[in-house]
Amino acid sequence: MLRAKNREWRSWVAIIPPDGYKKEGLVGSKDRLEMCKLACEETSSWLMVDAWEELQKQHTRTAIVLDHFNYEINEIRGGALMKTGARKKVKIMLLIGSDLLQSMMTLPVWEERDLHHIFKYYGCFVIERGEMDVSCEISKHNILSMYRNNIIAVKQPVYNNISSTKIR
Length: 168
Known about the structure:
three-stranded parallel beta sheet; Rossmann fold; two-stranded antiparallel ribbon; alpha/beta; 17% strand; single chain
């Protein structure tokens, strides 16, 4: 169970959607997809890999990817099946490192309308890395401040300054 400021999540699934992003030095998307499948195959009951983003012919913005998962899970599948037999809407959220949160506000890569869409309708879990204080970062930016209740900081019990790029 995950708890954060009067909220709790009893169960969750993490979907890993390797993207079709092509960058020098980055392993091809088909290989990244296969590596993710192998990593999740026998090691986790709550991680799954989805190829939708990788199969798109061009770069797909994160807001559109989140919309896709929301549609597939909540509209097509009807949400999560509860023990009572009822279905409940699933809360879709983005999982990022604090370094990405910081770059979302400083790099001209993210469209402002997408940032509003992501933080308003989905929100995110932010894994703190290094010395960066997520609360402080939120207070520096109007967009983040506006949606602060949808941004959950995940404190690291052990100092961690390794970016996901280095892990990959």
